[in-house]
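If you are new to this repository, start here. Below is one unmodified record pulled from the training split, so you can see the exact layout before writing a loader.
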Amino acid sequence: MKRLFCSIALMIILVSPAFGETKAGMQKKLSKVQNEIAELDRQIKANEAKSSDALAQLTLTRKKIDAGKELTTELGKQIDSTNKRIGQKKKDISKASERYEMMLDAYELLIRKAYTNRDTKMWLTYIFSGKDFGQILRRYNYLHSVSEDMRAQAREIRDQKAHLERQMEALDSLRAEELSLLKARSDELKILKADEKSEKAMVDKLKRNKANFQKQLARKQKEAEALNKSIREFVQKQAGGGKSSGKKGTTTGKSSPKNPADVKLSNEFAGNKGKLPWPVQGTVVGQFGQHNHPVYTNVQLPFNNGCNIATAAGEPVKAVFAGTVKNVAVMPGYNQCVLVQHGDYYTFYCKLRDVRVNTGDKVKVGDILGTVDTISGETQLHFQLWKSTDPQDPENWLR
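And here is the target side for that same chain:
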């Protein structure tokens, strides 16, 4: 019986951490998606009254819908995981209950035997009727052992009962957790349905106002081209006069750091690819490269040399790596921009409001460069990362 109990306990100990690790990983991802949705929801509500740009609202809403779908998927996984844990817990309880019943039956048998032979005189007669002292001692030890076994069995029964009660409480907790997850998933599906309805209304609005959209697109195209041209010229100047290839978003020409310190900094920066911290807390709503309009699919949007990160108004913008502030400029549509050099690499932080650094300042990773501004109803950081004269996809460098 002791061996059986140990086997059950060992199985529970081995199974529980595996479930715990899975749950912890899922919970971490769930929290991340929930935070992303909350931030996007704040952006959408804040922009509704300020922004006349339907595309901006559509982008945020579609990003929220994607996050909502991811959230319902993660909730579904947690529900499945909880169901498995409930199933395992029921098996544990069944085995523990069987063992408890076996122990009660065995104890009842011992009690009956003890009751039948409860006469002390009979026990003493049995002990002292031994042929010699050795047999008398053995009989005494046997009866003493029976008494000890009864007491031990009683203690084990109490322990097993407490163990069974804990298992039942754990099962009730899992069932409550499952109900909570089911409700959360049901609520999220309702929100998702409302967001999809809102998305359809925005698409219809864009289709009805194509002329107005084209004006907005033309303005944004000019602003993006002016920013890209300014950055490209600045980098070429720093790099030693590389020449433009004539293609949007790309240049030719190579540069090499001019001193050992820059070489070291470049190597350290390159070694942190995929590990750099995000410059701001938020959600990417505009990715690197050339993309078509989500409604007018044959219309190209302005080439994006970086990524756009939706965030809260006034959110601090931080340097992703150590370097030197090379320029603080103001660009139409992008407000203030801070340009930081990291040896042969450059990072650009645009759409800032309160800039807290000046040209020539040395910055460390995590230093605050300024705060995000709200422009035309959008609260977004535009972030670019260049290797010499070649723009990179920032998401490949950030962790």
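Two things worth knowing about this chain: The two ends are 53 Å apart (CA to CA). Residues 130 and 136 are 5 Å apart (CA to CA).
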